[in-house]
Amino acid sequence: MADQETLIERLIPGDLEHQIPQAVSKVLPGGLRNRLIQAALGVLLAFGLKTLVHRFVQMREDRSRVAALDRAKSAAALPPPVPAPALPVEEPPAPAPVQTAMATLLSPFAGSAENDTAPEAADAVKYPLLGSPHVNLSGTVDQMMYASFRDQLAAAPRQGTLVVSISTLGGDPEVARLMGDEIRLLRDYQKREILFLGKVAVYSAGATFMSAFPVDKRFLTKGTRIMVHERIMTSTLQLSGPLKSLVGTIKAKLHEIEHSVKIEEEGFRDLVAGSKIDFDEVRERAPSNWYIDAEEARDLGLVLDVI
Predict the structure, then answer these.
(1) How many Cβ atoms are within 10 Å of 179's Cβ, its own excluded?
(2) DSSP per position, 286-297
(3) Is there a contact between 162 and 135 (Cβ–Cβ < 8 Å)?
(4) Banded model confidence at residue 27, pLDDT cuts 50, 70, 90
(5) CA quadruple 13, 17, 22, 25: dihedral sign
């Protein structure tokens, strides 16, 4: 309050209660009514001016307190002193990150020399998804395998790369073509990347199933072999009836054989498409059961790599 009184005295020196009425009396003439008005105006002006000055002083004090708080906060927020830099310590290089992107997974340099010293570890880095296929098929290619194929496909993830493995000595080529068509539909309509992994034996109908995958999506495990051969038909043609009707029976069987050969050759073309093997070569070697080991298949471009 001492500061307030000093400021008031500095602004209006003297006795404020007496100065205001005197100033009003100079303006208004004499008379009882005017005297009352003078007194009332004097009191109002005196107390109003005092209140105004008090508020002004209070605002100045509030601003001073706020400024002091801001300075205290600024001092507390200052960063600690920076210590002297320590001598550099040489650290070993960080290991290379595991390449899980499918662009790296299917790199054309999968067989580079830098991974020759530890092929198992290198395969785990280059092809991490192949270690746990989503669909595992084994045994004879038949309707039971197709049912298992459909069940496992339904339980597989709906997005991302899909890995399908198979190990078979053969079976029904039409069931193999049916499963291959399911793969094609997934690839074309859902734009999914689907990888083939052959294990131990990929014979006959297994090679037919493999032909549904592009060569850069095919893999084999070490020691696996592919066997390609012509379709085998076991049929008995019984002729009985008028001679002219027998001609139709013979022609129907001939048409069946001719169409089966056409389907077989379509499968051979799909099998070697994009590889170093000519269609004529596979057609020539198929009648004698052509066995191809994993490394030879890789060298011929029939598969991308061996793991």
Answers:
(1) 23
(2) GGG-EEEEHHHH
(3) yes
(4) low
(5) positive
